[in-house]
Amino acid sequence: MQRPLRIVGIGADGWAGLTELARAALRDAEVVFGGPRQLELLDVSVTAERKAWPSPLLPVLPELIEAHAQRQLVLLASGDPMFFGIGATVARLVGSSGLDVLPHPSSVSYAAARLGWPLDDLDVVSLVGRPLETLQPYVQPGRRLLVLVSERGAATRVRDLLVARGFGTSVLTVLAQLGGPDEAIGADLETHDPLAIVAVECVAGASAPLLPRTPGLPDDAYESDGQLTKREIRALVLAALQPVPGQLLWDVGAGSGSIGIEWMRTHPSCRAIAIEPRADRRERIVRNARALGVPGLQVVDGAAPAALAGLPAPDAVFVGGAVSVDGVLDACVAALRPGARLVANGVTVQTESVLAAWHARLGGTLTRIAVQRAEPVGGFTGWRPAMPVTQWTYRA
Fold it and tell me: What is the pLDDT of residue 69?
């Protein structure tokens, strides 16, 4: 009978901090994989063959597990293996029934305890292997953040991002080697241990722009050549698309990328693909995505419908600039799985006619949206209307 694959969480306190169950699992092991520093923390009573993780690890992890399938294998992880750790990756490979996870308190739990911060009232952001811009959506007035970093001096980059956002008076505290004999808590932003937590108490300056997670960011939050779904329309589009955590959006004819960006900002697990034929706009989309904290936005070079072939099936689709192109709506509708949503906008008589025909064929909702903004008229103020937008929404 094949023995379960075990993952043991270990902290900076090493062997002394492990439970008896975790110690027994390590003594029972035939092979132990871990980082060099983790392997050095093991007691002499652990007689298993000790192997350091290969680098890069993820591409070879499946074959590593398979190669040791007939031996009692233990993988060492920092803290809680299921919290930004290797546990979730291994669970996807072997399934939960073949996995025995023995967690240790995470560094996040230690940090919250040291600071007296309730874990249920803060945001945890990992920058380990992720771009710094991932932090952007979490920087909000009055919020507390625990930011996981893996490079010496990473706290200075966090500080620089806060300054650029107008949060320069935020309070930063670096916590390293939590739970171990070399635990350090202070404000040393430049020479801290590579593996550390940067605690941030966000303080917004008077002129700091508000960039909430709710749809409808200010138009000037985007770099644009004019190909931008305006703020009020954008908010209505996102409301109709109904972002759901973990789901995928196609933004067809993405322009400045605003719809895909705001879809992804609603939840860290939301994914989006921006399809855009123009190189200058694709570059602009990438810059906007990074500036607004969703560097994972995928940008596809090409024009619909041809560029849609082979893309993963979407949970929602937005068509803003290619409604009247032959085959685009056909391909988008055909790609919808049961329950998936499609939202298409048009501003010309021709595109309105196309949307009306699709509405007559499949149903859904056809809406005309008119927005007027107050502007000076001589010494007075009058309403200046924007071009009305016709919107078709459909759910498969």
Answer: 85
Task: Tell me if 83 is assigned to some domain.
Answer: yes
> Are both 29 and 122 inside the same structural domain?
no
- Token pair, residue 135, equals 């932090």
Domain boundary among 105, 130, 158: 105
Q: Within this chain, do residues 231 and 355 fall inside the same structural domain, yes or no? A: yes
CA dist 87 → 7, 94, 151, 350, 357 (Å): 7, 11, 22, 53, 50
328-355 per-position pLDDT tens digit: 999 999 999 999 999 999 999 999 999 9
Examine residue 209 and say whether the peptide bond preceding it is cis (omega within 30 degrees of 0). Answer: no
Residue 206 falls within a domain, yes or no? no
Pairing of strands 389-395, 341-346: antiparallel
| Residue 322: predicted pLDDT | 85
- Residues contacting residue 337 through CB under 8 Å, at least 6 positions apart: 313, 315, 396
Instruction: State the Cα–Cα distance between residues 261 and 294, nearest whole angstrom.
Output: 7
Collect the ranges in the chain with pLDDT lower than 50. none
Q: Provide the residue range defining the domain that includes 377.
A: 219-395
In-domain check, residue 209: no
- Predicted pLDDT at 26: 95
